[in-house]
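Assemble and predict.
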Amino acid sequence: MGKKILLGISGGIAAYKACEVVRALVKRGDEVRVVMTKGAQEFIRPMTLQVLSENPVGTTTFDPGYESEIGHIDLARWADAVLLAPATANLIARMAAGMADDLLTTVLLATDAPVVVAPAMNTQMWRHPRVQANLVTLSEMPRHLVVDPDEGELACKEVGPGRLPDPEVLLQALDRAMSPQLLSDKKVLITAGPTREFIDPARFISNPSSGKMGHALARAASEMGAAVTMVRGPVSLDPPSGVDVVEVTTARQMHRAVMERAASMDYAVMVAAVADWRPADESDEKVKKREMTGQLELVKNPDILAELGARFGPDGDEAGPTLIGFAAESDDVVERARQKMKRKGAHLMVANKIGGPATAFGADRTTVSVLSEDKVVEIPLADKLAVARKIWENAH
Ligand code: C5P
């Protein structure tokens, strides 16, 4: 469901990047209204933002035309969230002081929506103690979330913190600000992606897992306030912002990384498609074609979920995380998942049907059933992030 986002742009060189932010928001189905400070209008023209946002742009407090289209109080009430990108040192100072000397700061005082502040400025300005003190003031205000700037080369050629983060990072911060904090103070461990089991340096056994579901669960948990560690096999996805990532390749590495961390977690969610078998001997050198026999001896990999289940599951004797497993089945999905839940000692099982275009490996959308001891909740077909949020709503 699209949200109503008020984008406030203030006057720094990063203002031009606000165009990309508007495009990204509109693309994902959000409704966007833009308010620009006087300084912002020196860098980009309101018309550009009007075309991209498909809405009139607010520029001054006393514009009768704009006020009759949407008054500043209505605008403050309309927004589900406010994003300030870029937020200049000047805007941050005016907010910290509670001023209302232009349309943007007036709306900011009048809204009770969450406010995401994305500062971008010259590195020296960013480091100035007054700017830092104002940012502390903002981050201590209820509903306010400050996103740290990226480090790198700035438009002024200085190198250091001060760059506006990519639109994707800002969108994730908005989602976090709008999300119910169901998992605040919780620690979540997630496995994601496939593993690779090497035959020799040039060949391995693996599977087509994309890691999308694991990444969606990590992102959703992080939005809901959890401290998330994701142990992931080789995938080509950017990790969600704010998630601690442990990169592994083989099942045994994944097993070790999980076992080292599991006991201190509140939730352990095993989403990875772990290879069940690995070659009995891994050759250090590439095996020559003519030396191949056509036979490959395999040995079983550790079952990470089952091992956690034996210790921390319903019949285990150690206190530990709530264990959530995944079961991909092609028929009798719920019944087989229930048997798997018992066999592995998981507290919850997420079952999905494999086969069919929407449920194939690598798909962007999925439909699942969440099984617990005494019930089954069906989660209808949706994109994996929406499904991941629903899974957490049922699991927390
Ligand atoms: O037995 P199966 O592979 O169908 O079980 C799937 C569930 O078990 C998933 O949650 C998966 O992450 C987990 N698993 C595991 N270690 C393995 C195999 C599967 O943690 N070696």
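Residues 191, 251, 270-272, 274, 276, 301, 303-305, 325-327 surround cytidine-5'-monophosphate (CB under 6 Å).
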